[in-house]
């Protein structure tokens, strides 16, 4: 089995920064992709960012380009999401996911998910 645990969420003001972490444990894989999705109240879950374990490929939603950065620590099987210039519309539960399709923006391609961490941005 694979377990994903997110951390780093919280309540911040517009313009502030947060860094989310997602640690994977359990079964190991030679090649995989990790991604962040988010879901705001009353809205569909949406793609935020993705990367491969090697970091050779990254992908971002248009809404976060230039503000968010995804990165990883291969030794720790951990992926991070650095979020800068946060806006109220970034408020959502952020989920970490692991899959096997490089660069995928679709939740179908990620069979393993964390429980989510709340990010709230006040104006």
Topology:
Elements: E1 2-7, E2 10-13, E3 18-26, E4 33-39, E5 46-52, E6 58-60, E7 68-73, E8 78-83, E9 92-99, E10 112-113, E11 117-122
Parallel strand pairs: 2-11
Antiparallel strand pairs: 1-3, 3-8, 4-5, 4-9, 5-6, 7-8, 9-10, 9-11
Features:
123 residues, mainly beta, globular
Structural commentary:
The protein is about 0% helix and about 50% strand. It is built from no helices and 11 strands. Strands 2, 4, 5, 6, 9, 10 and 11 form a 7-stranded mixed β-sheet that branches. The protein has a 4-stranded antiparallel β-sheet with strand order 1-3-8-7, with no helix packed on it. A hairpin with a 4-residue loop joins strand 7 and strand 8 (about 80-85). It starts with a strand and ends with a strand.
Biggest sheet details:
7 strands, mixed
- Tell me the number of strands: 11
Determine the structural class based on helices, strands and strand pairing.
Answer: mainly beta
Given the structure, what is the number of helices? Answer: 0
> Mean pLDDT, nearest integer?
92
Q: If you compute it from the alpha carbons, what radius of gyration comes out, rounded to the nearest whole angstrom?
A: 13 Å
Summarize the entry for a quick read:
The chain is mainly β and about 120 residues long.
């Amino acid at each position: 089995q694979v377990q994903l645990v997110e951390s780093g969420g919280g309540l911040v003001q517009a313009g502030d920064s947060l860094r989310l972490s997602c640690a994977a444990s359990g079964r190991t894989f030679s090649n995989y992709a990790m991604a962040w999705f988010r879901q705001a109240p009353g809205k569909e879950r949406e793609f935020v960012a993705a990367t491969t374990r090697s970091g050779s490929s990254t992908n971002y939603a248009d809404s976060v380009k230039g503000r968010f950065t995804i990165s990883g620590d291969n030794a720790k099987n951990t992926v991070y999401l650095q979020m800068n210039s946060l806006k109220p519309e970034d408020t959502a539960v952020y989920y970490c996911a692991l899959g096997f399709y490089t660069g995928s923006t679709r939740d179908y391609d990620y069979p393993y998910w964390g429980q989510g961490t709340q990010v709230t941005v006040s104006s």
